[in-house]
Amino acid sequence: MIVKHFNIFNQPIFITPKTEGIKYAGSKLKILPHIDYLNNLKGYDGWYTKHYGAEITGTKQPFQAKNTRKLDAMRDEIEKLNLEWEDKCVILTSLIYALDSVDSTLGHYVSYLSKWSPRSYNDIFLKLPNRFPHYGGHKIVRGDIFKTIAKDKFDFVYFDPPYGSNNVKMPPSRVRYASYYHIWTTIIKHDKPKVFGKVNRREDSRDLSSASVFEEFRKNKSGEFIAMKALRKLIQQTNAHYILLSYSSGGRATKQELSDIVNKSGKLLKIIEIDYKKNVMSNMRWTNDWANSNEKNIEYLFLMEK
């Protein structure tokens, strides 16, 4: 099956720039020389090393300093190469993949491992990522999801909203979803922003500025959870033939509540339950007081027809 039209909705994280109508995701012959050039750059102490790098015997950081020095050199140089937009996107993708392969984290960037991970000792190395031809007409959107769904109708929509926590001991406002990958945002923008906190998060990733209504843990004046109301509104207002909703058992809404929401807006065709390991947040020191290591983490997939 060839997908000729798709949309990515309401991505709260600035990882890839908005692109439309690119025939091919970069030319291999054009990009490989740039990747080879960047791999051979000599690293130096710059902004990224100052905020996210550490020596082997140093403090907890997501990367060893030898790799952030290369990052400093590579990222500064990318801005000087006068690349075409799609080629720059491919090279930045390569850089993110390379950094992800040498990090020392739990898979996000709001808490770092107390000891260096084995892979953090490896040297960062850019590789040409897989690229796929497409046929135009696609759209990538960063914005309010309710405004986005009001603009079009769709054959099939997949929703994977952030879900916060249903545990009353968990401080839901501590870290918002958009904050978990703040480093990728900075690397793409390369704006070297003002940072705060122990993990040097971007100033614009503070909880009050990056909150999602789907993570809201409070109730409204009528006693309804705000997150539940948002989910109901999302399903009801989406003009689509089929909707697939992904949600976690650790979220504010229960399986039964989600089933009720779906059934009131259309026909529930199937529910799939995927038993995942406990969310990585259970390994964070500040969640030890509430996390139940024996509790399963179920990912629900609700398929409905409207």
Automatic annotation (TrEMBL):
Please write the reaction equations for the catalytic activity of this protein. Answer: a 2'-deoxyadenosine in DNA + S-adenosyl-L-methionine = an N(6)-methyl-2'-deoxyadenosine in DNA + S-adenosyl-L-homocysteine + H(+)
Q: Which SUPFAM superfamilies match?
A: S-adenosyl-L-methionine-dependent methyltransferases
Against Gene3D superfamilies, the record matches this protein to: Vaccinia Virus protein VP39 (3.40.50.150)
InterPro entries per the record?
DNA_methylase_N6_adenine_CS, MeTrfase_D12, SAM-dependent_MTases_sf
Protein keywords? Methyltransferase, S-adenosyl-L-methionine, Transferase
**Biological processes per GO annotation:** DNA restriction-modification system; methylation
* Name of the protein in question: site-specific DNA-methyltransferase (adenine-specific)
On whether Transferase is a keyword of this UniProt record, the answer is yes
EC numbers listed for it are 2.1.1.72
Q: GO molecular function: any one?
A: site-specific DNA-methyltransferase (adenine-specific) activity
The record ties this protein, via PROSITE patterns, to: N6_MTASE
